[in-house]
Amino acid sequence: MFIPRLLLLALLVTAAPAAALTSLETTATVTSVTAYRDRALTQRTATVRLKPGTNLIAITELPVLLQDDSVRVDGTGPAGATITGIEVRRRHLEQTAEKRVRELENEIRDLERELGKLDARKAGVAAQKNFVEALRTAWSDRLSKELAVRRPTTAELNEVMGFVGSNVTRLDEQGRDIETDKKQLKDRIDALKRRKNEATGSQRKESKVVEVVVESRREGPFTLELSAVVGQTGWEPAYDVRLAADGTSAELIYRAQVRQQTGEDWQNVNLTLSTARPASGGAPPELSPWRLFFPRPLPALASPPSSPRPTPFVAQKAVRMAEAEDHAESAAEEAPAGFQTADIDTGATSVSFRIPKPVSITADGSRHGTVISVDRLPVATDYVAVPKLAQGAWLTAELTNKAPYPLLPGEIRIFTGATFTGSAVMKKVAAGEKFVLPFGTDDQIIVRREEQKQHREAGMFGGSRMTYRYRVIVENLRKERRTVTVRDQLPLAENSEIKVSLEETGLKPDERKDDGTIAWKLTLAPGEKREFTFGIVVEYPKDRVVVGL
Question: Where is the DUF4139 domain (predicted)?
């Protein structure tokens, strides 16, 4: 009888025994982390033993923050092993916390019994104090009666005072000790009750599971490598800059602050910090249509109150503090400790900083600090003074980013030698770009501005004229030549009928900007003192009021 080929194959498959299905469950250990600014790529490993046939491997206890679409799985094992399926799903774990709750309840009961014993001791001490007080009263009555008949001896008085005094002191001390013990027991009871409430409320916990189907022709160990992106983590740059004593160079320490709240601690992981921005996507933004049309008439709306103009950044008030230094005792010559820095990989669009040694970062959101690089940068220093606003001169330094990677925005702490002078915010600085940092005021550079007079008079052709005159004094008390830039300003006329001019008296400004800023750059020898004057003239129509004069 002729049997079709397809039907024969179906009969053979039906008659064959079903392939073995092996279910395996394991957890994966985080081995390496690549941290971005707002997320992280974690890599985990797990090892199981495959059986011949189909193996369903469940990788459990993964954080809920794991992004499903970012999961990738690779594996190495016996020849012929093939990954045929991957699935990510949520799992609600029913916690058997009843046993732990009972243990906590037993501990609480034991401590409450101890607390009851202390209350009983306290009552006993109180009874003893009452007894001593009664004796003291009785002795006082007896002595009062005896004083009418005879004078008590010194020994009798000492006996009464010693008995009463020693026992009152002893009982007071016992009372204080009991109160201290009671407070400690109550704190322990409160802590156990909180733990009990937490255990009672954590009956249901959510996690994620990655199920991997592996077909294998033979038995053997199989190592899974699972990579996935998790949220609620990232890193932020932070900097320390220390100006050398001669002012010609500065040490820039590039740090990273890593924090994570993924729900699992990272123990001894290989950490890499990346400047890539996965959140912005890999493609450029697309343009929307640019439409032109005549607007419909709209009712007039009250304009919102204007927001205050942002004030220019001023470094925080300088605070002097000694920098702590650790010294190791050794027979060899002492030297300052260096920093472990990162290995740097420059890619096409981002930079990666690989921390050379494994690190551990807890999931409580605390910041873990590590050093990326330490660079010595050339510096061009200058002094800037704005005597209209404040007397004195501020030391500024122009630095150049010599690294082949950008310096990302972050907080920067500024030191002059061992003195902390303030903090600022570092803007993004590209490789090779110059940037300026403030290093606080210098008491040995004196700059002050004195107003000589204000004069108002009628101008020509019936106009009005307002004149301001100032004297600026600059003095260099240092032993080195210093350059000081003195900044002031002219008022800006917002009406063409208002005329503003600068009266120069021999020293022309080196800089004059459209925003009204004027600046003089003075180079002073050691101990030199210089001064100059200038005037500001404002002319406007007669009988008009000018706001701002």
Answer: 224-542
